[in-house]
């Protein structure tokens, strides 16, 4: 039987050491890597595909929920955190387990036993938990050419559909993300972003003016100097927000 490949993610070295110590008595476990922040975790999950992750929530750069959203991870996760305000949501959605620091060896072993039964299964409830936590995220995670970029939502000017990708325009730069425009739209705050066309979404504060080049057409003029077509439905949505 192959050992369970485990990733430990926590910004506190003492917490990582304790998890290592608790795992020592379990001969079917192989610790494949440790990470001390969210960006490192995204890289490790993407490249190593661990069977099980012990994941802290409050960490520098990216929190635990953002790590899962960035990697699309929806199974094999045990949360380890000092913050109990996330526990009820996790248990309500049937997460594998939620270890509240400080936890004992016995409590840890119980979580690990539960994980062994579930590690090969896709946990749809965990995906629901991740989606809820990131519905109106303040940051967008984009992996491009082996690098992980964290984009503040407030820096985005507009997003365009490009076949199976979306092109995110921000701070005079752009990045491609493998995602549909409709999927991305669900992550955006509807009070700050508006879909003006089937192929484009703008941040409302990036809008400078609305032009009408002809009787039946409208264009959004953004502060960055870009002009984007507005559909009739998009115009109605936009008008209702101004």
Describe it.
The chain has helices at 13-23, 38-48, 64-71, 87-92, 105-118, 124-133, 181-187, 232-241; strands at 4-9, 29-35, 52-55, 77-81, 97-100, 139-144, 147-152, 156-162, 165-170, 173-177, 193-197, 200-203, 207-214, 217-222, 227-230. A five-stranded parallel sheet has the order 2-1-3-4-5, with helices on both faces. The protein has a five-stranded antiparallel sheet with strand order 10-9-8-12-11. Helix 3 (64-71) links the parallel strand 3 and strand 4. The chain is 32% helix and 34% strand. The chain folds into two domains: 4-133, 3-Layer(aba) Sandwich (Rossmann fold); 139-241, LytTr DNA-binding domain (OB fold (Dihydrolipoamide Acetyltransferase, E2P)). The longest helix is centred in the middle third of the chain and has 14 residues, at 105-118. By secondary structure, it is of the alpha/beta class. The model is unreliable at 122-127 (pLDDT under 50). The chain contains eight helices and 15 strands. Helix 2 runs parallel beside helix 3.
Considering the chains and any ligands shown, give keywords for the structure.
alpha/beta, Rossmann fold, OB fold (Dihydrolipoamide Acetyltransferase, E2P), five-stranded parallel sheet, 34% strand
Spatial strand sequence of the major β-sheet: 2-1-3-4-5
Measure the end-to-end span: 61 Å
So what's the overall shape?
elongated
Number of domains: 2
**Named CATH topology of the largest domain:** Rossmann fold
Number of helices: 8
Which value, in Å, is the CA radius of gyration? 21 Å
Structural classification:
alpha/beta
Low-pLDDT residue intervals, each spanning 5 or more residues: 122-127
Tally of strands: 15
CATH superfamily of the largest domain: Response regulator
Strand content: 25-35%
The H-and-E topology, N to C, reads as EHEHEHEHEHHEEEEEHEEEEEH
How would you characterize the largest beta sheet? 5 strands, parallel
Helix fraction, binned, reads 25-40%
CATH class of the largest domain: Alpha Beta
Q: What's the rounded overall pLDDT mean?
A: 86
CATH architecture of the largest domain: 3-Layer(aba) Sandwich
């Amino acid at each position: 039987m192959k050992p369970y490949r485990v990733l430990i993610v926590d910004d506190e070295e003492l917490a990582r050491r304790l998890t290592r110590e608790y795992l020592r008595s379990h001969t079917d476990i192989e610790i494949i890597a440790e990470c001390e922040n969210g960006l490192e975790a995204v890289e490790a999950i993407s490249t190593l595909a661990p069977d099980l992750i012990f994941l802290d929530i409050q960490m520098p750069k990216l929190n635990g929920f953002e790590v899962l959203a960035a990697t699309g991870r929806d199974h094999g996760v045990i949360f380890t955190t000092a913050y109990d305000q996330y526990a009820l949501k996790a248990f309500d959605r049937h997460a594998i387990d939620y270890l509240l620091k400080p936890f004992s060896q016995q409590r840890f072993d119980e979580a690990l036993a539960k994980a062994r039964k579930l590690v090969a299964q896709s946990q749809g409830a965990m995906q629901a938990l991740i989606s809820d936590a990131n519905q109106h995220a303040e940051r967008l995670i984009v992996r491009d050419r082996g690098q992980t970029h964290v984009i503040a939502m407030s820096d985005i000017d507009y997003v365009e559909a490009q076949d199976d990708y979306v092109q995110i325009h921000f701070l005079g730069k752009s990045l491609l993300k493998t995602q549909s425009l409709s999927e991305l739209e669900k992550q955006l705050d509807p009070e700050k972003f508006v879909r003006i066309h089937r192929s484009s979404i703008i941040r409302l504060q990036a809008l400078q003016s609305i032009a009408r080049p002809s009787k039946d057409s409208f264009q959004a003029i953004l502060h960055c100097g870009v002009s984007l077509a507005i559909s009739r439905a998009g115009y109605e949505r936009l008008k209702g927000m101004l």
